[in-house]
Write the structure tokens for this entry.
Amino acid sequence: MQVREQAMDPRRIREYLRAWERHGSGLVAMVRKDGRADHGLVERLLSALAALAHRSGDVDGEGDGCGIQVDIPRALWAEALAGAGRPPELAYDPRFAVGHFFIPRSEASGSSGLKAKILRRMAAEGLAVLLDRTAPVDSSALGPRGRAEEPELWQVALLCPDGEAGESRLFSLGLAVEAETPVAVVSLSTQVAVYKVRGTPETLRRYYPELQDPRLATRAAIGHILFSTNVTGLFERAQPFHLLAHNGGISTVSRLREETLALGIPLTREGTDAQDLDRCLEGLIHRYGFTLMEAMEVVFPPILAEIRGLKPELQDLYLYLRQAWGPFAQGPAAVAARYRDEMVFAVDAMGLRPLWLLETEEEYVFASEQGVVPIAEVVRDPRPLAPGEKIGLLLREGGPPEFLSYPEVQDRVLGLCRQRLPALEGWRRYLSGTSQGMEPGSLPGLSLAAVPGSANTAGGEPPAFSGPSDRLLAALGWSAEDHQMVRALAQTGSEPIGSLGYDGPLAALAEERQNLADYFKESVAAVTCPAVDRDREVEHFSTRVLLGARPPLAVRGSGDVSLAHRTRVELQVPVILGGHAGPMPLDLGAYRQVAARHGTRLLEDLCREWDPVYGAGKDPGIVRVLPTAFQAPESLPAALERLGREAGAAGREGAELLILDDRECFQDGRLWIDPHLALAAGARALREHPGPPEEPNLRGRWAGVFPSGRFRD
């Protein structure tokens, strides 16, 4: 067979990739080096977005969405104010703000009522409305899906208080608008405006005539093009959002949302992971007083392996921040964000989403790909941001921006946090996973008699360990297979090798009694590859857990100052030893050594670490035991509600270590509550229970421990 060799045409290759390659979303940001506002920056950014079109979704020639964040076009607004009989110079007043709102197409018939309601809310917030109007758009630029869902872009010009107070008032207004109406807040700021559309970059350019007006000039711009992998392409879901554009996906988005709500920050309505990430950062800025750079370090902290290599002051800072909140936004991510005069560009800790730094004679460019800028214009070698790296820019009015490398960003954040947070010294001791007060095994004279479930006393030979009865284990849901597994582990010190899969029925189909966790259990076989970066991958699968009150993210009273000095313990694994209903399996010293070797503690030691006089006649109640058993005629829902009330009362009364204890179950007719339900009831009650002034709830003020025979997986 004769094979004909043909030269590959680069143009045909580019056409093929543009037609078929789908790598995900793309982002690009440009900042002028001289700090001068320029309309050409808008044109260049839109062209750069067009170069990233192969990273966008495309259905019948209609893109999933794209958008751009720019400086407020003050020259255009000065003309609009003059036309409305208002002083045009107000557009250049530092108090001047612009809101962009999407009014859904489904609400078109009642839009006048919605607008009147929002205008009344603005007046109630102390904001002076200068002008409101429907933005000029060209609907012919949209594709069929875009036209079918096209919302009205309603623009409102406002005067608000100066500085941070004004921005925070605008944030509160945006929350109220989205809570009380179906309207989506696109942008609401004294600094920036966002334009976005369901379509391509060319659609964006044609749809908004303002983007074509030479008077729309900006010092910096952030653009994004969307590939809707697992969300619906809608106008309001196109990026950028209020602060950021994001390429990637937050793998831990459920935890991020839970922790954001625990801070008292409302989530967006039916928002995506990127929308809720944006809201979390906004909340940290407006509710907790952080700058953008600080908020980004809270949400995307360095991994522990990198923290170990930092100077001691930064180790203290990051260990404090990780305990005050935590690395809850994990997963592939490249982020470009702006708030007022700060800009931050960041890559996730694993470096799974690229973000390149390029420089031309006139601009800094941050982009998902190098090719957004013609190579002839690049004056330095393009550089990808390293895993976990952040770069900051401080915009200066009328002058060049200040470029901050990541070490400079870290030093800036350290200086700011020292001014707002109490006692940042000494937190680096948690790098080893040990507790605040003592090293593992440092309680040789401990009396164990008062600890829930403990039948031991210190000193002498321990009584013979017999283990729980088969009948009790059966009542707690242990199967014959579970017995075999544990016996094999005890005899060999390693997990037994078995066949792949599980040949029993699913929990929902089983005739035997099943525990709650069995309905969520999954047996899988995974083929693993060598770690690309072991230290970073360990961080993403970490089992470290913090017990105790979290230190405050902001000091708003004397209670927050004392909160920083509460007892807390960091464990390497969320499993605690000890607390047996009968004798211990080892003598006390050996048992402590086993616990320390695995990065955990004995329950007996934890109780005394929180409360040195635990078990004394006048116990102050820092350690509180809550029995979880219940008895007829009380129902399970009623028992869970009661348990929640008791947990809330204990937290309100100052308890810091709550021990949920099920040892009374199966005695005198008492019934058993699955520990997952009991823990959820306690956590929910503390999350919903109002905390001290300025604190949304009690969730961050306690540690929960559940000694139970139920846990086995």
About this structure: The chain is about 30% helix and 15% strand.
